[in-house]
Structures are given as structure tokens and as C-alpha cells.
Specification:
Shape: globular
Distance between the termini: 29 Å
Largest sheet: none
Bound molecules: iron/sulfur cluster
Helix content: 40-55%
Number of domains: 1
């Protein structure tokens, strides 16, 4: 997982879940796009990452953190960069969700759909 500027890290951020993530046993490169990756290559890599996230026991903690931290890069909690950008774009930056659980509250549907069969490319 990439380092974030401290200003973006929620003050109550906890990291225990990262020790439990399924991604610990997987090539981290599938979670982050290489420069200039486009089209089907990006879709394929994102889906591979999402499949790992779909079976991860700490997916909700990860997704909650990523939304609250406004993570710009990578697949987190099954949410791709584009999916998170859509979430960020509809949130009020003056009242941004920062408290633990607020990321889940404001993006519940997006987080559920992020690992749906359709999002994984199996339906
Ligand atoms: S949800 Fe995905 S990115 Fe987050 S800890 Fe689990 S496997 Fe890693």
C-alpha cells in the first residue's frame, strides 16, 4: 500500500486490518496501474485485484479507510480508482467523512457493488 500525505490520513486510522489483508499474499502490482495503462489491460488488472478483495476478511475496514483518506491510487476494499473518484466527486469537501465508519456510511452501495459478479466480470 502506498504512503499517503499525513494530512489525508484520518486521525483515528488503525492499521491492524492491513496485517490481515488477503493482498499480503499477492503481487502488489495488481492493485496499482502502471503508467499509461488503459482499456482492457486496466479492466483485467482491476478485476484481478477485486477478486482478491472480494475474499478478504477486512474488506470493509479497508474500503472505509480508503474513502475517508481519499486514497487516489490503487484498488482498496474492492473499489477501483475510478469508483472511488465517483464517490469523492459527490461528497462535500467542507464536510468530508473522516470518522471511522463514515466511509462505509457514505459509500455503502458503491462498496457492495465493487465486488459484485458484474464488477468481477463473472456475470
Ligand atoms: S480489501 Fe483488498 S486491498 Fe484491502 S486489505 Fe483486503 S485484499 Fe488488501
Amino acid at each position: 500500500m502506498p504512503q499517503q500525505p499525513l494530512a489525508q490520513v484520518p486521525v483515528d486510522a488503525q492499521w491492524y486490518w492491513q496485517e490481515l489483508g488477503s493482498c499480503r499474499d499477492v503481487d502488489p502490482l495488481i492493485f496499482f496501474h502502471p503508467q499509461n495503462e488503459r482499456g482492457s489491460a486496466r479492466i483485467k488488472r482491476d478485476r484481478a485485484a477485486k477478486q482478491v478483495c472480494a475474499g478478504c476478511t477486512v474488506r470493509l475496514e479497508c474500503a472505509d479507510y480508503a474513502v475517508r483518506a481519499r486514497e487516489p491510487y490503487g484498488v482498496w476494499g474492492g473499489l477501483s480508482e475510478d469508483e472511488r473518484e465517483r464517490i469523492y466527486s459527490r461528497l462535500d469537501s467542507r464536510n468530508y467523512p473522516r470518522a471511522k465508519g463514515d466511509g462505509l456510511r457514505v459509500a455503502e452501495r458503491d462498496i457492495a457493488l465493487a465486488v459484485s459478479p458484474r464488477a468481477l466480470g463473472i456475470a
